[in-house]
Write a sequence for this structure.
């Protein structure tokens, strides 16, 4: 069995070897023939592969495009849905707002009594009031006036009644201020008007007294006398116009003349009707007879009114002579007229005198200043040439409207209104200064409020070379010349909008000129300048430190450009005030450190004492003897502390109250000492 197996294997191996050799030969032959037979096949395979890859790429692109299209369509749908939702929500909100607005009462239109609409309405209502005050009495006294123009009177009467009625409605919509806010509640406005005296007068003026025409006839227009109760509206219009107009004195004079004419008009009507009651031509005092053939003009309306007006003017002004009265009633009428005339004359004289004095108040005040200065120069024996220059300077101020002091004129206004006026008047000139071009608006407003106008006459020096610069100047109007030391040779002429002296008021360190003027500047003619002082600038810059550094940097750049600054730190000497401030700061810091050190030492001693006491207590508990040295040291330490405390108290009394920080630290020390005493007491 053992020999058969190897034999079998030996017989099989050659067969396999032969087969392998045959296969190897075939494969070698195939390999040799492969490049010849398979080369076109390989090309076809490559082409087919490339086509398949292209197709796959196209498919991928198509898939991507389809996906992108789907995504775009989804986004568009989502956007449309979102827009539709938003529109629906907006529509719902609008509907809700409409419903809420329906539920809520509509906001009432209220007229502001300080607005233009109210003022314009006062003008409209003043016209029918003036019509009634002048024409009712005239129509009642002069019959021809009532009969000849009855249609026009009816139209004007009922037009004025309609305006009166509209005015009552207007009053129910006129607001009023309560706690600084305009009241717009319809009920409050109506109740306030109906509870006032004016409503009662308006109601009486609207009573239909014209119905009496059906009883008495059209010859009695005096039944409309209740329409005169609206005179308050006309007076209100006049007072508001007086405050609004730029010429109040002229308006007051015109208003006074109008009142006088109305009184004379009424007196003329009363005189004619009184003459009618006595009888025309009954005596020399009354109106002449209407049917006098020698004077037929006295029967005409024009002569009637003009004669009555002339008589009334003579009587009330007490100028000229009139025929003496003959009857007792005429005497009484004449006396009453004289009394009214005296009152009118006194009113005219008093009002016109006050108006003229008010109109000339500024001139009188200015003239008193000139008189005082003239008297002073006369007493001090000032040169006549200089005296003439002073007088010419005052004349220039008055003739050009520059005699008013801005601060005194605007002192009654609040700061906000002052600032707004100053911004409109001076901001343009201040913004021309290049160092202030980029400053904060708040700083510019403060500086604008501190600009002071100054006027220089021809030949005046604004500044001289070597003077200390305490202010800068901005030219508003006029010409200034930079002159040599002789005062004649001109180097440069400065015009409106120019400025100078801005570097000297900044007091920049290292400036070769310091705060001294470097040129002579003289006024060629009359020149108007704005002056800004150094103190005002520094006071404003205290609250704007960033602006201060910016201004100093700009000034330093200007000096470097003109080579007028020394950058060597050895030559830059600090100011005495700055040195003093620094020394005071150091001294305060040293005192603060001294107090803190003493506080630390006290705390150290207190803790040392507490530890010693605890050790002594422990020794007592353990039964050991306590050394007396510790107690003696404690006593000596307490005595030293007392001495030091007394010395400190004396020093503090001598030095007085220190800074707020020192006081706070002293309080803290006292509180800590009290706490330590409490702890020791508990132990």
């Amino acid at each position: 069995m053992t020999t058969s197996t190897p034999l079998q294997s030996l017989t099989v191996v050659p067969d396999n070897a032969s087969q392998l050799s045959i296969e190897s030969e075939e494969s070698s032959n195939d390999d040799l023939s492969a490049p010849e037979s398979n080369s076109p096949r390989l090309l076809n395979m490559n082409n087919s592969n490339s086509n398949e890859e292209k197709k796959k790429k196209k498919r991928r692109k198509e898939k991507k495009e389809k996906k992108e299209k789907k995504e775009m369509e989804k986004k568009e749908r989502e956007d449309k849905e979102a827009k539709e939702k938003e529109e629906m929500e907006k529509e719902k909100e609008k509907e809700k707002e409409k419903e809420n607005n329906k539920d809520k009462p509509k906001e009432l239109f209220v007229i502001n009594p300080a607005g233009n609409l109210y003022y314009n309405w006062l003008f409209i209502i003043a016209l029918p009031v003036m019509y009634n005050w002048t024409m009712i009495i005239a129509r009642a006294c002069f019959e021809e006036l009532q009969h000849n123009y009855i249609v026009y009177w009816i139209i004007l009467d009922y037009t004025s009644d309609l305006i009166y009625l509209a005015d009552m409605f207007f009053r129910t919509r006129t607001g009023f201020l309560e706690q600084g806010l305009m009241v717009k509640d319809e009920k409050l406005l109506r109740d306030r008007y109906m509870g006032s005296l004016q409503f009662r007068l308006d109601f009486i003026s609207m009573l239909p007294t014209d119905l009496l025409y059906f009883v008495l006839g059209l010859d009695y227009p005096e039944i409309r006398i209740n329409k005169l109760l609206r005179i308050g509206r006309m007076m209100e219009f006049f007072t508001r116009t007086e405050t609004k107009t730029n010429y109040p004195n002229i308006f007051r004079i015109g208003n006074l003349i109008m009142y006088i004419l109305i009184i004379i008009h009424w007196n003329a009507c009363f005189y004619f009707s009184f003459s009618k009651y006595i009888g025309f031509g009954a005596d020399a005092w009354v109106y002449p007879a209407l049917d006098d053939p020698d004077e037929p003009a006295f029967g005409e309306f024009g002569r009637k009114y003009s004669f009555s007006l002339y008589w009334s003017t003579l009587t009330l002004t007490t100028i000229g002579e009139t025929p003496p009265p003959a009857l007792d009633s005429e005497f009484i009428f004449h006396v009453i007229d004289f009394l009214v005339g005296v009152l009118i004359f006194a009113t005219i004289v008093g009002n016109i005198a006050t108006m003229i004095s008010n109109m000339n108040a500024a001139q009188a005040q200015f003239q008193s200043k000139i008189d005082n200065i003239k008297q002073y120069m006369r007493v001090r024996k000032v040169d006549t040439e200089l005296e003439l220059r002073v007088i010419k300077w005052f004349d220039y101020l008055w003739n050009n409207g520059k005699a008013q002091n801005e601060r005194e004129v605007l002192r009654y206004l609040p700061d906000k209104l002052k600032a707004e006026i100053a911004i409109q008047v001076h901001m343009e000139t201040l913004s021309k200064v290049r160092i202030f071009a980029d400053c904060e608006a708040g700083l510019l407003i403060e500086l604008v409020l501190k600009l002071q106008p100054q006027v220089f006459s021809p030949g005046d020096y604004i500044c001289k070379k070597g003077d200390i610069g305490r202010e800068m100047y901005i030219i508003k109007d006029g010409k200034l010349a930079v002159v040599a030391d002789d005062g004649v040779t001109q180097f440069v002429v400065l015009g409106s909008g120019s400025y100078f002296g801005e570097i000297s008021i900044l007091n920049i360190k290292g400036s070769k000129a310091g705060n001294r003027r470097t040129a002579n500047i003289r006024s060629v003619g009359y020149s108007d300048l704005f002056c800004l002082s150094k103190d005002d600038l520094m006071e404003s810059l205290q609250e704007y430190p960033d602006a201060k550094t910016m201004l100093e940097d700009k000034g330093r750049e200007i000096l470097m450009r003109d080579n007028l600054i020394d950058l060597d730190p050895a030559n830059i000497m600090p100011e005495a005030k700055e040195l003093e401030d620094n020394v005071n700061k150091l001294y305060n810091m040293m005192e603060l450190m001294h107090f803190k050190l003493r506080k630390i030492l006290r705390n150290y001693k207190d803790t040392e004492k507490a530890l010693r006491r605890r050790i002594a207590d422990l020794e007592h508990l353990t039964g050991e003897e306590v050394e007396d040295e510790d107690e003696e040291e404690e006593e000596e330490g307490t005595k030293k502390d007392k001495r030091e405390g007394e010395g400190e108290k004396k020093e503090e009394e001598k030095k007085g109250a220190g800074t707020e920080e020192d006081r706070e630290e002293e309080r803290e020390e006292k509180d800590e000492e009290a706490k330590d005493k409490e702890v020791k007491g508990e132990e």
